[in-house]
Amino acid sequence: MNRTDRLYALVEELRAVAPRPRSARWLAERFEVDARTIRRDIGALQESGVPIYPELGRGGGYALDRTYTLPPVNITPREAIAAAVALETMVDTPFLDAARSVLCKILAVMSQSDVDAVREVADRIRLTPSGPEPAPARQVLRTAGDAVLSRTVLSIEYVDRHGTASSRLIEPVELLGAGRLWYLVGWCRLRQEVRGFRLDRMRQAAVTDEVAPRRSIDRVWQAGLDLPATRLRLPGSADSSRKADRMLS
Fold first, then answer.
1. Could you write out the three-class secondary structure of 43-108?
2. pLDDT tens, 110-145?
3. What is the DSSP letter of 151?
4. For this protein, what is any one GO molecular function term (predicted)?
5. CA-to-CA distance for 29 and 26, rounded, in angstroms?
6. For residue 247, what pLDDT is reported?
């Protein structure tokens, strides 16, 4: 653990037991350094304004003023979702546990209403293995994401796998994908059924003023899409996975 991380961890340790103290020896064993290093670290924290004070006598040590709190961290639901998607790409790396710990900390500093919003959106985002497919236009990515977040009917200009162009109104239900390959899954008013639309095949996308009616996600996926996918997982959420069996547009 580097010094910066240790200083932060020292404050968190003292905050957890406040107003009770922790001795320099106890802290040294906890952070696997010597007591002299702990005293230097405590001195640095005190100089920076952290209200740590010594308690003398048997059972004494260093204590943190229980009224001390860190500056507020304001994280939006969109930022939390972005972090969750990014951290899921680390599933095959040695840093998976650390990545999940980061996401837990992000959710811990958010209000309950924002956490509920994050979980509701996460339930409508699925991740798939990435490939060498062409990247969708940045504007299309942003617009499709906004449509799912706000459940707003989307107007698109689309070219299907056969090269046939069409204009459609889509009631967005879910985003599905990873890497460069992303689909918008929704109710197509042109075809009057659930369809999956590759974002890289959207030539234009624009949100309308109409809020789409809620549609059952489970009922949508009972129709199926021919692409394996798992739900974006958040700490505390039930792990679920589904396999779809309908060809995508």
1. HHHHHCCCCEEEECCCCCEEEECCCCCCCCCCCCHHHHHHHHHHHHCCCCCCCHHHHHHHHHHHHH
2. 888 888 888 888 888 887 766 666 777 878 888 888
3. T
4. DNA binding
5. 5
6. 34
Q: Are 51 and 65 in contact (CB under 8 A)?
A: yes
Q: What is the residue type of 17?
A: V
Side chain identity at residue 147, one-letter code: A
Token readout for 22 is: 């922790």
- The angle formed by the CA atoms of residues 238, 115 and 199, to the nearest 5 degrees, is 75
- Given a contact cutoff of 8 angstroms between Cβ atoms, the answer to whether 171 and 153 are in contact is yes
Query: In terms of pTM, does the model score above 0.70?
Result: no
Cα 199 to Cα 185: distance, rounded to the nearest angstrom: 10
In the chain, domain spans: 3-64, 72-122, 126-230+242-249
What is the dotted CATH code of the domain comprising 126-230+242-249? 2.30.30
- 187: tokens are 């109710």
The string of pLDDT tens digits covering residues 101-113 is 888 888 877 888 8
